[in-house]
Amino acid sequence: MRNNYLPLTILLVVFSSQLHIVKASGAFNRDGSELRVEALQKTKLSKEMIVQLKTACVEAAKIPSSHRLRKLSNQLMHSFQVTASFELEMQRAELLLDCKAPSNAQKVLQGINPTSLKEQKAWSILFWKASNAVMDHLNASLALRRLSGGNFQTLDDEQITVGYGVDGTPLTRSALDLLAEHERLNGRCDAAAKVLLAGRTSGAIGARRISRAVQCLDGLSLEKRKALLRSALDEAKNDEAWWLVGDILRLHLLLDLASGGDAENARKRLEQFSKELDDRYTQLELIRLAPSRKEEKHILEDQLRSPRRNAPNLE
Predict the structure, then answer these.
(1) Each residue of 101-138: b (16+ CB within 10 Å) or e?
(2) Where are the beta strands (DSSP E) in the chain?
(3) Given Cys at both, which of 58, 161, 183, 251 links 191, Cβ 3.0 to 4.6 Å?
(4) What is the Cα–Cα distance from 46 to 44, expressed in whole angstroms?
């Protein structure tokens, strides 16, 4: 009598592609108990599932082995239907970041189309986080440019969480500084300098940005450098950011002196600006550069040593 049954091994090969592992119970992980399988069919992602998966990702991330994280990441990518919900798809991307799968998070985010300004901001920051996690500086910079909406100054006020301290306190950096760093790492020093000079924060932060801009500008051609500084100077004047105008003029002079070029025009512009602001210390610095102006130097030094002598008599 002929046996009309197919061998078990053949059946496993034929039907194995139609089965997928849905969930391994805690007992299975510990003592090898039964593993549930069901027919391959994508399910809808719900808020309840998101809560459960987030807990699973956070717990799995504490274990050195990446097997469980990969499994959860694959489940997030392949076991759920793509929804039309902006919120749910964003949460799916956030879960993938929790599961240490930033590349997959990028893929999910690239399929999302934010419509409102609020959605645009949330999408840009999350796409930056995913891109930054895989050191994709090109897409990280594109995300921050999209966040700026074409106005780099808005990034000066945007603080982005880049990590957490030992006590769990969020560590933040200005989005403007982050964009400049990504542009530098992309090999676009001219773009990095332009971003840094767009900042309007004064004090120590502003000084550091000017210093970093100098490093970027040093490698540019004279034409590119002058064009960039001219543009930054015009913008600073329009915004009446006078401290920055002075810093840019100083930067222009220093770069001209360092390159061995004719710095006379840059010196005259800075000196004229310092007179308009009655900035005598800057005037003295410039006069000291010209040995022929000894008399002016002595007069200004006397004025700075004895300011009361030159003060108007109000009595």
Answers:
(1) bbebbbebbeebebeeeeeeebbbbbbbbbbbbeebbe
(2) 19-23, 36-39, 159-164, 170-174
(3) 183
(4) 6
The pTM (predicted TM-score) of the whole model is: 0.68
Distant-in-sequence, close-in-space partners of 30: CB < 8 Å, separation ≥ 6: none
Q: Which residue has the tokens 């790492």?
A: 185
The residue written with tokens 């932060």 in the block is 205
Backbone torsions φ then ψ of 37, nearest 5 degrees: -130, 150
Question: CA nearest 147: which of 169, 174, 165, 170?
Answer: 174
Does 86 score more than 70 pLDDT?
Answer: yes
Structure tokens at 191: 């773009």
What whole-number distance in Å separates Cα of residue 35 and Cα of residue 155? 50
Per-residue pLDDT tens over the stretch 30-58: 333 233 333 345 677 778 888 888 888 88
Strands 159-164 and 36-39: unpaired
Which of 175, 172, 173 shows the shortest CA–CA distance to 146?
175
Residue that has been written with the tokens 């997030």 in this structure: 76
Assign residue 100 a region (left: φ > 0; alpha: ψ between -120 and 50; beta: otherwise). Answer: left
> What are the pLDDT digits (tens) for 274-315?
888 777 777 777 777 776 677 777 676 677 676 544 444 434
Residue type, 100: K
Backbone φ and ψ of 43, nearest 5°: -110, 165
Query: Comparing C-alpha atoms, which of 105, 115, 111 is closest to residue 136?
Result: 105
